[in-house]
Amino acid sequence: MVPASGTLDPMQLVNVDHVGIAVHDLDAAIDSYRELFGVEPIRRETVEDQGVDEAMIPLGGSFVQLLAPLRDDTPVGRFLAARGEGLHHVAYAVADLPAALSHLEEHGADLIDRTPRVGGGGHQIAFVHPKTVGGTLIELVALGD
Ligand code: CO
Questions:
Q1: Which of 18, 19, 17, 41 is nearest to 29 (CA)?
Q2: Residue 134 included in any domain
Q3: Separation CA 80–CA 53 (nearest Å)
Q4: From ligand 1's centre to the CA of 90, what distance in Å?
Q5: Stretch 50-78: mean pLDDT
Q6: 138 in any annotated domain
Q7: Ligand 1 center to residue 19 CA distance, Å?
Q8: Could you tell me which of 58, 55, 34 has the C-alpha nearest to residue 43?
Q9: How far apart are the C-alpha atoms of 77 and 46, rounded to whole Å?
Q10: Number of domains the chain is built from
Q11: Residue 136 falls within a domain, yes or no?
């Protein structure tokens, strides 16, 4: 259960919204998740801004996000070329995304997005560079957005 946003520190991570997994073939990955794990996407869409086709599979209070690149010259296309399929990013929900980004910038984080942009499902999101902490690309998602 996610608490109401008014009771949280603006930059506090509330939960894991989703994990993003880069795949070559979105249909094949969806079929594998269905056959192996008995789960089904609730949403599938093209996000031009990020150069991906994505599918969101609900798992309790969070999601698995399967990502396939629209072209080779996209972030996920370059990721696949360099590393192959695998975990691409972890997305955390925050109560106040602009405040969280200001806080991160003040504390020396390497922000890919200094201001929120619109991600899949119309959610406000921003990415934090993997070199900031833990070698992991972090996506922040505005809570309840
Ligand atoms: Co994501």
A1: 41
A2: yes
A3: 14
A4: 7
A5: 96
A6: yes
A7: 7
A8: 55
A9: 14
A10: 1
A11: yes
